[in-house]
Amino acid sequence: MAAGWNEVFERSRVVPPPCQTVRLAVESHLTESHGFQLSLSRLTAAHLPQEKSEGEQDVTYQLRVTLFDRNHQQFFGKTWKSSPQKMKTTKISFNEVLYFHTSLRLLSTVVVLELVSLSPRPDGSQQALGRGFAVLELFTNRPEAADGDRRLNLHHGSPRSLLHPLLKDTVEYSSLLKTIDGAHFEYVLKNHQALVSVMHLLPENVLISGNENIPGLATSPTEDALLRPQLLKMLPFTLNKLTISLQPSLEKFESQLLQLINADCHNTVRPSQHILSLDSNCT
């Protein structure tokens, strides 16, 4: 049971956004959360950085996606990870559709995508190496960033480079980040109004795939429960009595504490006893 609760905790742990960003959204009257759909089809990478790793012949690639606040240089939400995929003729097909909802519709809110290679180690674990990352601007006034098919350039290095002081308050990353030649993501970003009816089942600022098991949603024949979400029928129930037993109880704790104090008193030799024993030895 303990291992199960640990798994639930790890799966449910979410990093909150910066409080300054939340305050700014409220002051900008952005209190209503909106739903979005992010489709990630494939990555074309003719010239990926090829650091040597163990088991290179069995290497697979994983996509990791996280929300990021560039004004305060802080990742938030929870990192979503794709299933590992093989590269075929310089292309990696992910074909993943992600959903999320947020009220932080500010220029500072972006999505960071990292490409990671996974290779097996002799002990059965996996060695993960970053192969590059990209930054997707969600809310911008530029007309070329409207809904539709887009390409996103892949940059050298790790997403942790976004935490460098030189990038603080930077509006445009392209002039400071080095692009990997011939490497880009193909994606589609859309508003997803159908998410409004099920937002109470999904934590805000968390990326989730439609094929994940979402309590409260009916399964879909398309294996994408969030494309056209259908709520399960609600069944009311009455809870007559709830008993919570906390171990150890306060009474038991006090009893054990008194026993330890008494035992400590009996086992402690007083200073006067030390003096008497020393005097008797001298005589």
TrEMBL record:
GO CC terms, sorted: ciliary basal body; ciliary base; ciliary transition zone; non-motile cilium
This protein's name: Nephronophthisis 4
Annotated signal peptide: none
Gene Ontology terms describing biological process: negative regulation of canonical Wnt signaling pathway; protein localization to ciliary transition zone
Annotated PANTHER family: NEPHROCYSTIN-4
InterPro entries tied to this protein: NPHP4
